[in-house]
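Protocol check, entry for the methods section draft. Step 1: assemble the input record (protein sequence plus ligand SMILES). Step 2: submit for complex structure prediction. Step 3: store the structure tokens unaltered in the notebook. Ligand used here: zinc ion. Step 1 record:
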Amino acid sequence: MKTVQEKLHFWIDGLVLRGFDTSSIVSSATWRGQLEYIRVSCSQCEALVINGVAYHETGCPNEKHECNGCNELVSRGRKYCEDCI
Ligand SMILES: [Zn+2]
Ligand SMILES: [Zn+2]
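Step 3, stored output:
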């Protein structure tokens, strides 16, 4: 059983891997109590979240996509990861 904190950190790790390098966990007090959520952000663009999926702006240099040969994430402008070249 994972705690909320662990889940949030797991998500942050995934976001950072996909280029959302300045994403962070935000903690704020609301009428329902302390609420923690993730703020998705990228140092190179105005990252946005649509239906729970984070996107970079078109042309962002931090944008990553899947390698054409496997599921490894590679930088923009590259088709294959180190292993698949
Ligand atoms: Zn970006
Ligand atoms: Zn690959």
